[in-house]
TrEMBL record:
Entry keywords, A to Z: Oxidoreductase
KW Oxidoreductase (keyword) present: yes
Stored InterPro entries: Aldo-Keto_reductase, NAD(P)_OxRdtase_dom_sf, NADP_OxRdtase_dom
Signal peptide boundaries: none
Domain NADP-dependent oxidoreductase: 17-310
Name this protein carries in UniProt: Aldo/keto reductase
Source species of the chain: Stenotrophomonas nitritireducens
Gene3D superfamilies with a match to the protein in the record: NADP-dependent oxidoreductase domain
Length: 331
């Protein structure tokens, strides 16, 4: 397994991580825990070390699942989880953000219990709480490091100034945000430049565009009734058709190279820099193997130019989150 270093002086992890969210939440269908655990075990066998989860996936059930999967294998895993998004059990669409120091402590202890571990390797603030100064939240996270409950700190979907303020309180090891061929905002909004300046690792989530860049999704009817993507602007109406046309061009380039569209999309993210560690998610063994094959796809300058020509910055149609959620990103 190829490895990469998270940040200038951070930990060494597998060059490709595994996002576990879809095993329990958001992408529809009933979860099959046995199949999901088999995927995690196979990933570990293949040398994947970075596993990514969060307390709000499920909620809570994904951490329990990951904890079951890594029992007896803790030394093989660099375990990342997140706190900060609070769900309302009575209203699945309602959510809030909580960055209060007392909540940071309580959330961490609850995650440790669900995961069945004595420490978390990388603990992210899932979303920035605009009502709590970032210095207070990160100060509480730093105390978790002092207590031995957390090794490294991270932020998710934070804006450049927030990243700088957080990093001044305690070193931030990783910044997680959506980044893929169809979500290239970090190149333009200063996030990528900021983390590189500060020596912070960059962890792209949804590097396959929530599955769309694989070319396997041909119509909105491919989604289960409870799949979150049915309510995402990029998967609706004219946006779906326009984005599918972009993916068709990616598939053509991939076919010419003898790889899948998903492998080409992942290889593109990996080629953006050695400081990037994408975390594609899957709950199927076949897709795990396909994703890992992207590590063997070499893209030369001509390939990258062809991809950029058909899928330039801001080419995707539609916002990446519904209106109710977009306000919580890049804060």
């Amino acid at each position: 397994m190829q490895t990469r270093t998270l940040g200038r002086n951070g930990p060494v992890v597998s060059a490709l991580g595994l996002g576990c969210m879809g095993m329990s939440a958001f992408y529809g269908g009933r979860g099959d825990d046995a199949a999901a655990i088999a995927v995690i075990h196979r990933a570990l066998e293949r040398g994947v070390t970075l596993l990514d989860t969060a307390d709000m996936y499920g909620p809570h059930t994904n951490e329990v699942l990951v904890g079951r999967a890594i029992a007896g294998r803790r030394d093989q895993v660099f375990l990342a989880t997140k706190f900060g998004i609070r769900l309302d059990p009575s209203d699945p669409q309602a959510r809030g953000v909580d960055g209060r120091p007392e909540y940071v402590q309580a959330a961490c202890e609850a995650s440790l219990k669900r995961l069945g571990v004595d420490h978390i390797d990388l603990y992210y603030q899932h979303r920035v709480d605009p009502q709590v100064p970032i210095e207070e939240t990160v100060g509480a996270m730093a105390r978790l490091v002092e207590q031995g409950k957390v090794r490294y700190l991270g932020l998710s979907e934070a804006a450049p100034e927030t990243i700088r303020r957080a990093h001044a309180v305690h070193p931030i090891t990783a910044l997680q945000t959506e980044y893929s061929l169809w979500s290239r905002e970090p190149e333009e909004n200063g996030v990528l430049a900021t983390v590189r300046e500060l020596g912070i690792g960059f962890v792209p989530y949804s590097p396959l565009g929530r599955g769309f860049l694989t070319g396997a999704i041909r119509t909105p009817e491919d989604f289960d009734a409870d799949d979150y993507r049915r309510h995402s602007p990029r998967f609706q109406g004219d946006n779906f058709a326009r984005n599918l046309a972009l993916v068709e061009q990616v598939r053509a380039i991939a076919a010419a190279k003898g790889v899948s569209a998903g492998q080409l999309a992942l290889a593109w993210v990996l080629a953006r820099g050695e400081d990037l560690v994408p975390i594609p998610g899957t709950k199927r063994l076949a897709y795990l193997e396909e994703n890992l094959g992207a590590l063997d796809v070499a893209l030369d300058a001509g390939d990258l130019a062809r991809i950029d020509a058909v899928f330039p910055v801001a080419a995707a149609a539609g916002a990446r989150y519904p209106a109710a959620s977009i306000g919580s990103v890049h804060r």
